[in-house]
């Protein structure tokens, strides 16, 4: 199954509990059903418009825009619900971890957490290779940063 409801790395998926993985799978299946329903609705309307001889009018484009907007809104709600669940179900696990030099505060927005972690590693590790290895070894950041872990990983990445 391709998981495209959220952008997690393989390492992040591996760090999830079985319950969290089931929640991700459930959200992905719901998204897949929404995608299929969208395509079926578009196809049904296309055939209806062709049968009525008005397919080439602006009606088709307007209908598609409306359906796509509704679909995107529903998918975004699913995505936000899943991210909320993952964010707070990981909280108990990561607060008990020790050894991180930055404040772990789940009340902060994801962007604020990203900035704190990025700043911590940039200030405390001047050597790029050392910074990347330290970040890669940080198990708290995997859950704490959520979808923004991968971009920060790429930012710090250094070929060894």
Draw up the topology in text.
Layout (H helix, E strand, L loop, with lengths): L9 H6 L2 H35 L6 H31 L1 H5 L14 H15 L3 H10 L1 H7 L3 H8 L4
Structural commentary:
With 160 residues, the chain is mostly helical. 73% of the residues lie in helices and 0% in strands. It contains 8 helices and no strands. The longest helix has 35 residues, at 18-52. The two termini are 32 Å apart. The model has no long low-confidence stretch (mean pLDDT 89).
Distance between the termini: 32 Å
Sheet with most strands:
none
Q: Average pLDDT value?
A: 89
Task: Bin the strand percentage.
Answer: under 5%
User: How many DSSP helices?
Assistant: 8
Poorly predicted regions are none
Oligomer: single chain
Overall geometry comes to: elongated
Say how many strands there are.
Answer: 0
Class by SSE composition? mainly alpha
Give the SSE order as H and E letters.
Answer: HHHHHHHH
- Report the C-alpha radius of gyration, rounded: 21 Å
| Percent of residues in helices | over 70%
